[in-house]
Design a protein that fits this description.
Blueprint: H1 19-32, H2 41-45, H3 51-62, H4 73-86, H5 90-95, H6 102-111, E1 131-132, E2 145-146, H7 152-167, H8 174-191, H9 210-226
Antiparallel strand pairs: 1-2
The chain binds a DNA duplex (21 and 21 nucleotides) through residues 1-4, 6, 14-17, 37-39, 50-53, 55-57, 59-61, 88-91, 102-104, 106-108, 110-112.
DNA sequence: AATACTCCCAACCGCCAGTAC
DNA sequence: GGTACTGGCGGTTGGGAGTAT
């Protein structure tokens, strides 16, 4: 099957969208919808753009339900967890964050999160390999790095710590948050491996939040697909 | 003030899967 | 079953904005 171009790249406009183009795109979709076909959309809307470009602009930026504010620490935590389980499945990760697009999440990961040590923390248990470049601290290493592997119950112990950290008003700066969370995790590694039932900061384990619900759901789905026994 | 450098994000590219014919 | 076409995805890049020198 040969690759067919979606439009004549030499004749369509490229680069940043002007406010006028945004307005045309938005108005046309509000009035007529996408028409179910992005390739013919630019012609109908009177835009000198590639259909794919129109789709991307709408999906990633102009859609009314898109959030344009900064990522919260709580969202960061979810991204960390899901990335460690799923890898670079940005669309799936984004689907768990209301108002965020795959492009948003990918950019945020590449520019902010992957440099931080927390990116090396989670691994999904059972049949996953134990080495990964993706979950490693890429700011200091370019080779495969061994990272901790946590079981589902262990991860459930981590979640309250993360959530508590993200909600704690005493955290005054992001660097303070980062170092505290990293510290919590380094201690957690020893603590709950020996099953003492609490985080290093004494936060009880029975406060499982929605992050864990997401994990459970994914584990169930993965287990169903891969024939891996469901732990929950 | 001018230049160099870095960071970040919007947008593009190319591939793949699904579907229609 | 084979081909053409489209939508969607992940990887990558270009360039504007901010910061350092």
């Amino acid at each position: 099957m040969g690759k067919t171009p979606c439009c004549d790249k030499t004749k369509v406009r490229k680069g940043l969208w002007s406010p006028e183009e945004d307005e045309i795109l938005k108005n046309h979709i509000e009035k007529y919808g996408t028409g179910g076909n992005w390739i013919t959309f630019p012609q109908k809307a009177g835009l000198n753009r590639c259909g794919k470009s129109c789709r991307l602009r709408w999906v990633n930026y102009l859609r009314p339900d898109i959030k344009h504010e900064a990522f919260t620490l709580e969202e960061d935590n979810i991204i960390y967890i899901l990335y460690s389980i799923l890898g670079s499945k940005w669309s799936i990760i984004a689907s768990h964050l209301q108002g965020r697009t795959d492009n948003d999440v990918k950019n945020h990961w590449n520019t902010n999160l992957k440099k931080k040590p927390m990116a090396a923390v989670y691994r999904y248990p059972t049949n996953n390999i134990e080495t990964t470049t993706a979950a490693a601290d890429l700011s200091t290493s370019t080779t495969n790095t061994l990272v901790p592997t946590f079981s589902a119950p262990e991860t459930s112990a981590i979640m309250p710590c993360l959530t508590e950290s993200s909600k704690n008003p005493s955290f005054s700066s992001s660097s303070q948050q980062d170092s505290t969370i990293s510290e919590t995790f380094s201690q957690l590694g020893e603590n709950f491996m020996f099953g003492n039932g609490s985080c290093s900061e004494g936060i009880p384990m029975d406060n499982i939040d929605y992050g864990y619900e997401i994990l459970s759901e994914i584990w169930s789905q993965e287990a169903a697909i891969e024939g891996v026994p469901n732990l929950y």
